Amino acid sequence: MSRILIPGGSGFLGQALASRLVGRGDDVVILSRGEGHQVHGARTVVWDAATIGPWASELEGADAIVHLTGRRVDVRSTRRNIDELISSRVQPVRVVGEAMERCATPPRVWVQSSSLAVFGDEGDAILDEDSTPTGIGPREMVTVCLAWEGAFRQASASVGRTVLLRMGIGLGGRNDPATAKLAELVRFGLGGRVGSGRQWVSWVGLDDLLTAMILAIDDDTMTGTYHVTSPNPVTNAEMMSTYRRLLGRRIGLPTPAWLARIGAPILGSSANLALVGRRVVPTRLLERDFTFEQPDFEPAARKALGACGLL
Q1: Which sign, positive or negative, has the C-alpha torsion 218, 155, 92, 145?
Q2: Could you tell me if 171 and 179 are in contact, meaning their C-beta atoms sit under 8 angstroms apart?
Q3: Which conformational region is residue 135 in: left (phi greater than 0), alpha (psi within -120 to 50 degrees), or beta?
Q4: pLDDT category, 36, cuts 50, 70, 90?
Q5: Taking the CB of the first residue and of the last residue of the chain, which one, N or C, has fewer CB atoms within 10 A?
Q6: SS3 71
Q7: Contact 170/13 with Cβ under 8 angstroms?
């Protein structure tokens, strides 16, 4: 049995990971501000994600930390929101790093979440772990991710083993926010392509995402940066067509780019989340002979819709 800490474990992904780890017999500790649902079998310890407190004692002698903290990205791209996106990721990483430096026996591995949005929009270029982010792109994507990863590199400099997981859009589970939002658009007749529809969507089935995260915890040979995403990204047009077919909607009105840029802020979101894409592949996982249970989009989307009770 391993003792594993999950800062930010009260969110969608954290709850799914905690449940999987508890199911195999691990001692799971979720660091939370008190938000979100409790996970049966896991302990929840309150922290403020900014200062060292009693929570830091949980690090002593732990086997692993899986850091998932960060404000949700589906917000208007205002300067204030972008600053909050950065601080909600950078500050928790820094304070964990400070706490780990005080440990006599720190966790043996730090697994850190990040996002493929670090690449901005590279068109049809195929991006893997050898691709270097240009730093060009929407601030709510590129700037946030670069600050996040930079903070992790600094905070984890003294840790024996570190793994950075750049994750695609996760699909699956009862509380899957991406699937629920896309299904809602389709059912309201707005399930057509957004903009040109040629922008790439890098996605990953939840089961595969969790398997990769647990591999990062368990396998001492796994270090550095990994892309956790299906080897088969799809275009926005392909994605929306698949959802329409699965939900029995023959027609979906397309959303021109100009309309998305006007409408998204009204709905409290950023148009760039739909208009900007990237074609990313998980080369390092494939080189390890990682087997994706859900390599293709349509079966994964069908399973995700079913888990959300939408089919």
Answers
A1: negative
A2: yes
A3: left
A4: low
A5: N
A6: coil
A7: yes
